[in-house]
Structure formats: structure tokens, C-alpha cells
Design a protein that fits this description.
Number of helices: 6
Shape: globular
Structural class: alpha/beta
Radius of gyration: 15 Å
Number of strands: 5
Strand order of the largest sheet: 1-2-3-4-5
Distance between the termini: 36 Å
Helix content: 40-55%
Length: 174
């Protein structure tokens, strides 16, 4: 939440140490993107991303350009930008960019949606999954989180029930 815990070079030290040990580093920067240069994966929302670099989230080409700029700024790691009811956009280390859509939901509370997304992205990538699949899982988990009031955990059963719906949406766009 950018309260200063990773100030004074601590973020760079942690990132360098983790990378030297082969540990995935995920970050959800709010105000200072440079602090997380070298992270394996960052996940700002669209509004935050547009504050970090000039660009647009309008169409796929504009989003791809935005993702590439963010990727350059962090030194080549993976980037996912959450776009609320429009899903997520991502770019992997090889430069492949994509969108993962979602369906419109009855949103009760967006509190915790970003935290749910970054947690699922990190978990899926640490388990060896590709970034696209990580985004599909994270999108499903975030959809569950926003349908609840307050900060709420997403259970395994809920996630397993939601994944086929998200996968069908993704398949329908190919």
C-alpha cells in the first residue's frame, strides 16, 4: 500500500537477494514503479499503470504498447494490468501479450480484488504455470472476491466452480 516499508533501497535489496536464490518476486506497485525494477512480475491496475507510463488502455494495440513500456521500466519482467470489469491484460517475458476477459458481475465490494489477483498470479507462477493461465485463475478469483462484502477469502471450491465460466469466455474470444 506504499506506506514506506520498501523505501530506502529495501525493495531493491530484497529483489536482488530473491533473484539470486531463484525466488519469484511479485509486486503490486501503487505509486513508485522504479522501486520494483527487477521484479519477476508486477500487477498495477490500469489507472496506476497510466500514472507510471504514458499510454492508453483503449484497444489491444494500445494496451500492448502500455504493457511493453511497463515491462521496459521494470527491466524485462512480466506485467499484468488489471482492468476491472474488462478483465486483465498481460505480457510475458518472451513479449507475448494477451487479454483475459471476464463477464460483468454484481460487484458488492472491490476491496481486496487486487490483493486476490496478485496472490493468485504469484501462486500460479510459483507453481510453474504460464502467465496466461495465471491470469485466467487470478481473474476467476478476483471475480469471486468482488461478489462478497468486505475483505473475504476465496475458497478452492468456489474457484473450481468459477474457472469453467472464465475459460469459456476466453475460448469464445479466440
Amino acid at each position: 500500500y506504499d506506506k514506506g516499508v520498501f523505501g530506502d533501497g529495501l525493495a531493491h535489496w530484497v529483489i536482488e537477494l530473491a533473484r539470486s536464490l531463484g525466488i519469484l518476486v511479485v509486486a503490486d506497485p501503487k505509486l513508485d514503479l522504479a522501486r520494483f525494477r527487477g521484479a519477476s512480475l508486477i500487477k498495477p491496475n490500469l489507472e496506476e499503470a497510466l500514472c507510471f507510463v504514458a499510454g492508453s488502455g483503449g484497444d489491444f494495440n494500445a494496451r500492448r504498447n502500455l504493457l511493453e513500456k511497463l515491462q521496459h521500466e521494470i527491466g524485462g519482467g512480466e506485467v499484468v494490468v488489471t482492468r476491472g470489469r474488462f478483465g486483465m491484460s498481460g505480457i510475458d517475458e518472451a513479449g507475448r501479450s494477451f487479454d483475459v476477459s471476464t463477464r460483468a458481475l454484481d460487484v458488492y465490494d472491490v476491496q481486496g480484488a487486487g490483493d486476490t489477483s496478485i496472490a493468485m498470479l504469484g501462486l500460479h507462477r510459483a507453481a510453474g504455470g504460464c502467465l496466461l493461465d495465471a491470469c485466467i485463475v487470478a481473474n476467476a478469483a478476483a471475480a469471486i472476491a468482488v461478489e462478497k462484502v468486505g475483505t473475504a477469502a476465496v475458497g478452492r471450491r468456489e474457484l473450481h466452480e468459477r474457472l469453467p465460466e472464465i475459460l469459456a469466455i476466453c475460448e469464445g474470444e479466440k
